[in-house]
Description:
The complex is a heterodimer of chains A (421) and B (437).
Chain A: E1 2-6, E2 9-16, E3 19-25, E4 31-38, H1 52-60, H2 69-78, E5 82-87, E6 92-99, H3 103-115, H4 121-138, H5 142-154, H6 169-174, H7 177-191, E7 193-199, H8 203-214, E8 237-242, E9 249-256, H9 265-275, H10 283-291, E10 295-302, E11 310-317, H11 322-338, H12 343-359, H13 364-376, H14 383-393, H15 396-406, E12 413-418
Parallel strand pairs in A: 3-7, 8-12
Antiparallel strand pairs in A: 1-2, 2-3, 4-6, 4-7, 5-6, 9-11, 9-12, 10-11
Chain B: E1 15-18, E2 24-29, E3 35-42, H1 56-63, H2 75-82, E4 86-91, E5 96-103, H3 107-120, H4 125-143, H5 146-158, H6 172-177, H7 180-190, E6 196-202, H8 206-217, E7 240-246, E8 253-259, H9 268-279, H10 295-301, E9 306-313, E10 321-328, H11 334-350, H12 355-370, H13 376-389, H14 395-403, H15 407-417, E11 423-430
Parallel strand pairs in B: 2-6, 7-11
Antiparallel strand pairs in B: 1-2, 3-5, 3-6, 4-5, 8-10, 8-11, 9-10
Amino acid sequence: MSAVAAAPFAVERGRAGRLRVAVAPIAGLRSVVVLLALEAGQWSEPAGRAGVARLVAQSLVRGTTSRSAERWASALDDLGAVARVDVGAHIAVVSGQALAGDLSAYLRLVADAVLRPAFDPAQIEMVRAEALAALDEESRNTRGVADRVWRELAYPPLHPFRSRPLGDVDVVRSTSGEEIAAFHRREILGRGGVLVLAGGLEARSMVAAAEAAFADWPSVAEPEPCVVPEAALSATRRRAEIVPDKTQSDVILGWLGLPRTDPRFVAARVTNMVFAADTFASRAGKVVRDELGLAYYLFSALGATKGQAPWTVRMGVNPRNVERAIETTLAELRVVLAGSFPDADLELAQDKLVGELQVALESPAGIAQMILEAELFGLGPDHFTRYPAQLRAITKEQVIETARTFLPADRYALAIAGPPL
Amino acid sequence: MTAEIAPPRLSDAPVTRTLGNGLVLHAVEARHAPVVSVWVWYQVGGRNEVPGTTGMSHFLEHMLFKGTPAHPKGDLDRLLARYGAVWNAFTSEDVTCYFETVPRERYPTALELEADRMHHALISPEETEAERTVIVSEREGYENDPSFLLGEELQAVAFSRHPYGQGVIGSKEEILLMPRDALYEHYRRFYAPSNAYVVLVGDDDARSMLDHAEAAFARLEAGAPASPLRAPEPAQHGERRVVVRRAGGAVPLVQVAFKSVSASDPLTPALQGVAVALGGSSGGSREAASGRSSRLYRALVGAGLATEVEASAGLNKDPYLFQVEATLRPGGDHRAVEARILEELDRLAGEEMSEEEFARVRKQLLAANAFPSDTVTGRAFRLGQLLSTGAAPSIGDWYARLSDVTSAEVRRAAAATFEELSRTVGWFVPVPSEPAA
């Protein structure tokens, strides 16, 4: 176990089975936040099998070889703890919170689920039925439809990000118990992941609890890294889908992002903030919402993943204002591309991103998220001391260059879902 | 073997000071992060509105971001963004609240901004018109959600006289007609030190936080006390039902609500236990893995009748609702789900829980109250919420009340609440879509 004191909080590291463990003790708290990131997200799905990762992840918490689904659920609730499982672009995350005194018991339950899931056929059918119901629900939900359409426009067939984590109906229907078990063995047991703990326990106790819980990680060969060919948007693609009996249109305007490990990623984060990340502090939101009153919300997001995750602007707009809101957003993008924004916009974006780092310290979840990003992408033990300076060092020229490289105003994917326009 | 939850520390009790103008200040130290969370709570919300101007408090909340003479529109947004603040505002049935969590060294500025807009908001006719469409857009976003559509109808049916029946955001028609001068009058009437209080939680000495707040707010005039509410809800004498048929939503919903008690009622802590026993403390569906031992999860989701179920006992100033909502599987049977919900409610009202089940419920109840308090923002919100509704004078006091709840009290609270005479049932029934033109 090596200790690295890095401002603004101390992180200690260790290993537990196939997990890299990073813990941050926070004096005075009663609970511990847990983030277990498994290298088993969409990135790991076999080509054409969108939805398998989520079926596997959800099936983990449906009983183990030693506890039925009911017993496992009761044991978790006995602790008063919370847990959820989310599948993202390249990881599946088991996240939750437990009282500090219960951390060992909590991690034992999580480890039981991750290492020894029962994959009981009846429980798999329940997971499948819920996934199909969710897909059905999302097919009438403007945000869900816009997300589906946008991905279909932006990514080529068989790309892992072409579908949402919920997956495709046919895959969800056809995935067998054997396929689920094989994915679990290969991608979860074989690849492992990162466990982050932040909260009111000493570092040594947290690392020891993790080691004890995951010590008997089975010996499984690590599979070859997944290789995903680079994708590109060669032209603007646009599609509107009508969702019946809705009042508002959801709009997604977006591009393909860049890996978190790309040296240009920090510049991309600053560019995102200058352009549209915040409804009030960024250029697009200020004009679309504050000056023109066209939308209640408008924000952009750039995912930190291994690959080209979506870099999208999302807004909720009355159908009659859709075209104007899109045009206004693109006009603000052109301002960024031309470099004709004031220096104050860049300073504001940098101040906000640096300030958020300090404010995030108020929450164990905020600290855990920062550590998770650093650990997943190997940003280095001194990342937290270097990162604010990295944000501050981004120049206006880098913002312009990043926007020109990744956010061309004449090549984007545009999805609109809602009432007829 | 589970650990007992450590009770809140002494520092969870607020240090309180009342200014000459009537403004009450509460401060709690939280030293684990270099931030301070500033919250200003106004005793005005949906319950202070009358038909014709529903949504006025919420509309006004938006206008408080549109500038003062000292801080023109955009100033506040830019300043808070520059600090990396977590900030927002919300309006509920009972209160309107503004908050910002900022780096420790910035909180005096946050207090100055709040004191400034307590008395000097411009609410100009031009900005009122510009914001009107934003608020309509907010409402239209909600209208895309079947749960909102049904919930709004159910609330209107459940309350015959009390303004809780009007909800918070207001009807689209009334938002469109809302006169600027009426908004300004609402502001003058309710935004005053004598109708507000301030909560500060963070990394400074409690008395220092109070001193900073006093320096910011003491110069403001008290204002006239807001008149008390005059529309109590009469007793309900039979079940009420509402059905919403829309194409906008693939999933059927069932909502069941019962007239309940105010947050300050002695029954309230036990009703929190009832909600946890029925629905868990964190939900038990979709991506959530906790809460699946709850009675309604097992009866509905576990049995394949629904995909999600929630139970909640809201904390409100006046008697409000105990609510259950189930999201059915596509094509699900409303009648069967409603019957199953009522069966479980009757069972909880009729038989005391086993020791094992009650221990689980109690642990969830207490832990769910401990987790949010481990963030500075969450602790400030929780304290303000308890104070605003009269539920408790401190987080520690609220914890003690929850901790004292017994299994027998949970049963009695369920029996006292789940009466057919005070029940309102809502169904959201998806209908086939019109073919697209």
